[in-house]
Every structure is written in C-alpha cells, then in structure tokens.
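call fold(seq) -> tokens
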Amino acid sequence: MSETLMPGAPLDHGAMVLVTLNSPREKFWGAVLALTAAGVCIRGISLESFDDFSRQIKTGDNADPAVVFFPMHRVERIELDARYGDVPSLAERFLTKSGLNAIEVFYREVGG
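ret:
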C-alpha cells in the first residue's frame, strides 16, 4: 500500500474507528491498519456482530477479527471511536462486555 494520507493524524494506524460503508450499507468497527487514497484497511468486525463477538471473547472462544480492505468509493465516513459525553465508546462497551481492552484484541499482530 502507499503511504498514509496524514501520518500522526487521529485516524492513523492503530486508531479504533467506526467505518460506515455504502453499497451495501454496513458498519465496521476495528483498528486502522492503513488509510490511503485507495481505501482503508481495518482489523475488526461488522458492527452487527458486536454482541456475539464480545461474548465469544469473554468465554475464551477462538474468535479473531477479520482483516479487510474497503475501497474509498465504498467509504461513506470514518469516525474515531470515542466517548461522547455520557455515551461510552464502542471500545468501552467492549471492555465491559468481554473483559478485554479492544486494542489488545484488534491491534495485536495479525495471526498472533
């Protein structure tokens, strides 16, 4: 992949984000591996599977987030996974549900 668009930016390598996609419309949550003009590479899960994935991690099941590339024409928006007032971030909700820090699960070495 080519170099990142804005090194050191909030959405740079390792940032926990929520990606909203179109055609078909879906949401994907995880850690940014690369953000380029061509698209975004994420290690994460479909937001639809958040509760099931959290439960699998908590019970010790062998569950790994997927490594996926979304071409920029499918990306509608990318937002930083952050707390907004009293509304916890997805990472905070994941910690509560699974007992693990999201960055430990999503940002560890691929295949590790």
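The longest helix spans residues 50-59.
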